[in-house]
From TrEMBL:
Name assigned to this protein: Beta-hexosaminidase
EC id: 3.2.1.52
Domain (Glycoside hydrolase family 20 catalytic) ranges: 124-480
One of the Pfam families matching this protein, by short name: Glyco_hydro_20
Organism field: Cinchona calisaya
Amino acid sequence: MGNGIRIPFSFLLILVLFFHSTPQISATGYPINVWPKPTTFSWPEPRITLLSPNFTIFSPSNPYLNQVAKRYRNQFINEHYHPLVDPPVNLTGLPPLRSLDIKLIYGNPPRLACELYIHDEPLFPYRGVMLDTSRNFYGVTDLLRLIKAMSMYKLNVLHWHITDSHSFPLVLPSEPELAKKGAYGEEMMYTPEDITKVVEFGMEHGVRIMPEIDRPGHTASWAEAYPDIVTCTNMFWWPAGADLFNRLAHEPATGQLNPLTMNTYKVVKNVIKDVVSMFPDSFYHGGADEITPNCWKSNKTIQYFLAKNGTLSQLLEMFVNSTLPYIINQNRTVVYWEDVLLDPNVSVAASVLPQKNVILQTWNNGPNNTKKLVEAGYRVIVSSAEFYYLDCGHRGWAGNDSQYNQPPGTNLGNGSSWCAPFKTWQTIYNYDITYGLHIEEAKLVLGGEVVLWSEQADPAVMDPRIWPRASAMAETLWSGNRDSTGMKRYAEATDRLNEWRNRMVTRGIGAEPIQPLWCIRNPGMCNTIQPFKLS
């Protein structure tokens, strides 16, 4: 091997494999900050050695693993990252080590942690980020940058909310008119070639791409191509004099697929077929959230159905029964938002949603809804808005909103941000997604997902809206948020997150700061409680 170092490749496999066990967590402090903290991290005598310029990673013959090995090798040799605070470790005269499980590398010339032992595997197999690209468009380069950042934190699922009422940017071979008429413009579409690029980049970085085509609600954009299959199109979303319950949509624009129109299912099945062919992931997100009763009630055909003692829930059941088996037959597990089962006005019975084939994603009422879903026997992805919604706290976005026209000193409440306040990284870090669950119930929780809806976000603000807050969730889902004594470790996490936020910035990710640099260089002095010092 000459001057090279042979590295076992098992630590890189962590990026692309799922694990299901729950290991014991060790969380003692060490002079080089790591994020997410490994499940077991032992460095009895912190020392470093220089990294050979002939450093080599040997891996099994696999095109994706080979790409990962090449990328990490180049990063180790060329990054020359300088920590915000120099770590107090000694440089040894030992030759480069050859049999470590993982390497912590920094500096110029590159320095390598030695006599370091790590056992690492995630607490939860599903660790995701959702991005909405319908309300505002994100280019392929933005998606690749997001995937790159996710891989730094072992986040392994990009939930791509591609379409919604506002635009339909996905070009589908079987239904080209949907994007041609439903996208914001030719330059704001995702072609099949774009999808391949994103999926392949995800594979190379250990990130799955789960597509979501939301329906039967949130489908106003479909009406540009198929007005015959969409109800309440081109109507003002909140009619004069209507209360909250009697709106035509939860937000502009209006439109829901009509379950009583046969052409609806022809178009929907073409969409499903094309999306499945583009995205190889085993999960397919079918949406099914926020059915607005009055949108369906405005349609004459549906009015006749209701007059014959039909119900809105029966309409949704009709839609699910006509589409869910088709998705399952494409060898996909279907993910729905929790509304399909829990909405108090329009929902279906559990018998319509086989637990074997369906996963439910919760976003309301925190641990309470998680509990309801696992008690019903469903696997669950947790995206509780109270903790994981990254768009919250930026005030309302509706025009001519008179509630802002108030005298000075008026309490504006949540400022039209329904899920205010802003979710700080500490709020996210301290959330236990299995809170209140018994051991067997907790096993049904696959993991969690932070969410960025894009009413007030686009590529200009994507990085700081997501990072480093998503990093907080990444660690809690990987190794937990408690130390070996069972205490929450958010205080200890601050210095490590500061360091890794800085590392993100050096890699081209525009993560927002969490503290002034002064705090980082004066450890403990920015705490709310003065640190204890020995005399």
